[in-house]
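Protein data:
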Amino acid sequence: MIYDLLIVGGGINGCAIARDAAGRGLSVRLVEQGDLAQGTSSASTKLIHGGLRYLELYEFRLVQEALAERELLLAAAPHVIWPLKFVLPYEKGLRPVWLLRLGLFLYDHLARRKRLEGSHMVRLAGDALGAPLRDAYRVGFTYADCWVDDSRLVVLNARDAAERGATITVGARLVHAARQGDRWRATLAGGEAIEARVLVNAAGPWVSEVLEDALHIPSRKHVRLVKGSHLVLRKLFEGPQAYILQNPDGRIVFAIPYEQEFTLVGTTDVSYGGAPGAVAISDVETEYLLNSLNHFLREPATRDDIVWSYAGLRPLYDDGALKASVVTRDYAFDLDAPEAASPSLSIFGGKITTARRLAEHALDQLARFLPAHGAAWTASAVFPGGDMPHGFDRFLDDLTRDKPFLGDELALRLARANGTRIFEILKDARSLSDLGRNFGCGLTEAEIAYLREKEWACTADDILWRRSKLGLHMSDAQQQALWEFIGA
């Protein structure tokens, strides 16, 4: 078979392009060297947002596009994306009140806003929103953005692509690809050969390595790797609100409610000069995040409060900025299309928020090289499990009423992860025991089978840290039992 598109990389960009292309009737093969979302796409701050700070960098087009996408995505995936109120304390000596007001006014009006509330100035003293903060913070602002389960959104893109005809292969590393007339012939580790009319390099941090080592194409654009690290701490404050905290270096740090029991704190921006791969938070980054947090908190956090940390490499488009924190978060394409030869498109940069729009732009770039196909369609399409005409809360109420054996916590976790697809796991179960062995936290054999058969989960880590965050909740013994059951 000759595919229309061969996509290298199973992060948010690759999976979004696969989804869009398959829905237009194109034949698609996506290959990922590890697990879906194993790299950058599961190491984000978990936000669908316009990027308030990007206004200072005059990235108005990027912010406008991201704000418009925020509305579309909230409607398309209400199970994995939901509104989140942010509190921005005013810090004397940093950004003046008039500048914060102006920035938030632009944030409210750069794109049409239907589902989220606008910004407000608030008195923090005596208000529950100010309770976690030191007395010095008496006024601030609130605005709304969205939370996202990043790795689940990647999987939903892949799931939708597969249901529209795409072939998704994990654990498949591209070794070599060469043009043979009007097609690419690619070889995977293990020897499988694939032929395709167009090759899309969406390898994230590995985009330059794929270009140079596998495709042997010199690039006119370059990737700049920036490490972003996060801490997960024991729950630091009550309430559903998040905090956006200003720092003297001009950066901001988020403190966000996480997994009911924790607080997520991040992120850092550290230039990274090594080879792409797994990275970890440094002591310097840990200290930076704790100091930033404790400058604002009434009750300081310590290293003893840390329960987990994670780090990832952002493959930013290198625009020549000197500081990592001001490198553009926009994306760029490098189209290599010699006359009478099969084209390749390499992707630099991008954000989870704008991945759907990036996919549309990518297919616009490639349209003239592809067979006749359908028009853009994803702007009005829901993701798998997102068909909830009465909203998520109503769906959850109906689920807990109809399946009382789940209990409130498990019903919420499964509904958030799967939306209406939950019934592909539950089927006709009338008790928890009908779902097979319970490995802890309601993770049953039925759910494991679904994740392996429908969502490409191969190892226990895939399940514990990307298809879910059960690794934060399950005991060591429970996790070991899962490893033994899966055998990987």
In short: The CA atoms of residues 92 and 137 lie 9 Å apart. Confidence is low (pLDDT under 50) at residues 322-327. Residues 60-76 form the longest helix (17 residues).
